[in-house]
Amino acid sequence: MEKCNYFRDTQFWPLAVADDAKQWLNNFHEDEEKEIAKQIVDFYIYLSEPMISHMLAAVLGKCGLYFRTFKDAWSDNDFITNCWYSYIPGEDRGEICSGLEFLRKIQTLFGIPNERLLTYADMERKMKETNYEFFILVDDFIGSGHQVEEAWCKYPIGLSLKEICKSHFHKVVYAPLIVNELGYNNVLNTCEGLHVEYIHKLPAEYSLFHPQCPCWKGNQESYAQGVELLVRKSKELGIPETNGMLTTDMKGYKNQGLAIAFQHGMPDACPPIFTKETLDWKPLFKRH
Predict the structure, then answer these.
(1) 102 and 138 in contact (C-beta within 8 Å)?
(2) 73: left (phi over 0), alpha (psi -120 to 50) or beta
(3) Interatomic CA distance for residues 262 and 52, integer angstroms
(4) In which domain, by residue range, is 24 found?
(5) Labelling 156: which of 69, 119, 216, 222 has CA 20 to 30 A away?
(6) Number of domains forming the structure of the chain
(7) Residue 142: helix, strand or coil by DSSP?
(8) Are both 27 and 37 inside the same structural domain?
(9) How far apart are CA 234 and CA 228, in angstroms?
(10) 270 and 233, same structural domain?
(11) Taking the model in full, what pTM does it have?
(12) What is the pLDDT of residues 125-171, one digit of tens each?
C-alpha cells in the first residue's frame, strides 16, 4: 500500500489506478488472502502515458538503427519522409486495436504526416504497388504472437505480407514496446522477413503461474497459495478454465498469466480476475 500511495503521490500512477488497486484488494476479506493479493499488486506492472510515450520514442529509434544497415544516410528526417507506419490488426482484423491507437500517438508526438499512416488494408496495397520501402508496425505488446503470425503469414487472401515483402524487397520492423518471450520466439520462428525491435522482454517466469515468478519471491508455499487463490476466486466469478484456448481463460490467453497493463488497456495475456467487474467484485484494471 505504501508503494501504491507513493506512485499516486508522485503521479507515477494516475489517482484512479491507485484507487482501483485498493478496491481490488478489498475484494479479499481473509487476512491470508489479503496478504497474497498484496503480493500480486506489488508485482503488478502499470505503464502510464508518459512511460508509454518515452518507450515508443525509444523503440522508433531502434528501428532507425536497423534501417541504417540498409541505408547508411538514414536520418531523423527519414522517419517523416521515407517511412510508412501501420499496425498488426486484432483477432477479427478490425480497425479497433492498440496499433491504431499508436498510429495516432506517433502522429501527435513526432509529427508524422497523416499520409504516412496506413491502415492494414492500405499497407497491403502500398506494399504491392512499390519496391524497397521502409515500414514500421507499431504496437504495445506481443503476447502469444498468434495475431502477428496470422497477419504476416496468412492474410490477406492470396499473397501474404511475408510473400509480398520478399518479392518487393521491403524492410519491415514490428515495434512493440514489450514482448512476452513466448510470443517473441513464435514470431521469430514463423514470420520470416519481419524484423522485431522492442524495449523489454518478459521471460516465462513472469507468469503468475510459474513457480519461479518474482511475485512469489522464491517461496514455494507462497506460490502454491497464490495459484490456489487465483484459481478458486476465478471459479467463483465464473471465469472459465480452457487450458489457455480462450482469451477469457482464468490464466489468460495461452496460459500466459501476466500482471501488466497499459494506460489504454490490459492485454488478454492477463487473467480476467484483474478486469472482472460485478456488484461484489471490483476490477484491478477497468476496461475502457
Answers:
(1) yes
(2) alpha
(3) 8
(4) 2-43+204-274
(5) 69
(6) 2
(7) strand
(8) yes
(9) 10
(10) yes
(11) 0.91
(12) 999 999 999 999 999 999 999 999 999 998 766 789 999 999 999 99
